Amino acid sequence: MRRSFLSYELRVTGHSKRRITRHSSRFTFHVSRFTPHVPLSTPVPIPNEQHLIFSVAPEQRGERLDRYLAGQLDDASRVEIQRWIKEARATVNGRAVKASHKLAAGDAVALARPPRLEAQIEAEQIALTVVYQDDDVLVIDKPAGMVVHPAPGHLSGTLVNALLGLDPSLAQVGGPDKDAIFSEEMASLSGLRAGIVHRLDRETSGLLLVARNDAAFARLQRQFKTRRVEKTYLALVEGVPDAPEGRIEAPIARDPAYRQRMAVLSEKRGGRKAVTAFRVMERYLSGMSQQRHEFSLLEVDLLTGRTHQIRVHLAFIKHPVVGDRIYGRRKQRIPCPRQFLHAHRLAFTQPTTGQRIEVESPLPDDLQGVLDQLRREA
């Protein structure tokens, strides 16, 4: 007898499970009691970082880790400290924990503090593609290869440098209220946002929203926090999902073993809610190698704003982004100049007028060329 509803358990690794619920032609992936074993390792050192160790006094027991560190470091903001904790730079008795972790007397708190970005961030005359602008908002079509925020090793050539060259007054937008940050996407080592309200990975191209004044910045922040900003991406992935559309619900956190990566982790291990929806737009069969492989072009809606969320979620369901050598295959099955991920559509409410604004960006030539080759083979 055929059933229209099927729920079953699928073992992903030796220490993790995911439950896949199938209802007619849709799949929903979500994590249930997901507690993977991730070995802790010595953090990858950053030049000039400080290694600090504190011992919790009896009168400090019961204090949250982030508040405790804020009391020990009078020159660090609460936002910086919380970011370090998320990056597993702070440990308690050798283990990575949440910022809200309650300390006990005698706990050993270790911190690998990164160096401060002291270099002056300068305005640079870098050509930008502005697809929408008014008195409150800019929408930039960011090219692949451009870093958004300055950081050690990337002090010039970033989107912040380019925005300051376009409009020097942006240096004052979004900076003072550091505690208003609602996700790790908003944090930057420099503290200078230049009105940038969200972020794209260096190798991800496409639309990015910039506020031109503090009032617009605050209102756009609220729109992101209440999920009123719609962000849709185009992604080419390996294989073909089992259903034409789906929803992935799996918490994401910094990988304790490899700080440069994110991972699906249970909430007990610091995972934060992350939701991604996708739709299959096209399917391809490639014969570029000796074996023929399938690929799918997806339209992906980012419903939460975790770092590397789309890449982590698609790899989690065994359909990694083509060209992604961090979460996907190191040796790619088809030639692709970078990770095939493009911020294609952005919809938001104009902060002053309340008008709904929607803008789109076509695939850039490098990614369009990959699709053209797949279509020719078909």
Structure write-up:
Helix 1 crosses helix 2 (78-86). With 378 residues, this protein is an alpha+beta fold. Helix content is 15%, strand content 30%. The strands form three sheets. Strands 1, 2, 3, 8, 9, 10, 11, 12, 15, 16, 17 and 18 form a twelve-stranded mixed beta sheet that branches. The chain has a four-stranded antiparallel beta sheet with strand order 4-7-5-6. It contains six helices and 18 strands. A hairpin with a 3-residue loop joins strand 8 (130-133) and strand 9.
List keywords for this structure.
378 residues; alpha+beta; Structural Genomics Hypothetical 15.5 Kd Protein In mrcA-pckA Intergenic Region, Chain A; Pseudouridine synthase; 12-stranded mixed sheet; 4-stranded antiparallel sheet; 6 helices; 18 strands; 15% helix; globular
- Principal-axis shape equals globular
Largest β-sheet summary: 12 strands, mixed
**Averaged pLDDT, please?**
83
- Fraction in beta strands: 25-35%
Which stretches of 5+ consecutive residues score pLDDT under 50? 1-25, 32-42, 176-190
What is the level 1 CATH name of the largest domain? Alpha Beta
Number of domains: 3
State the end-to-end CA separation: 37 Å
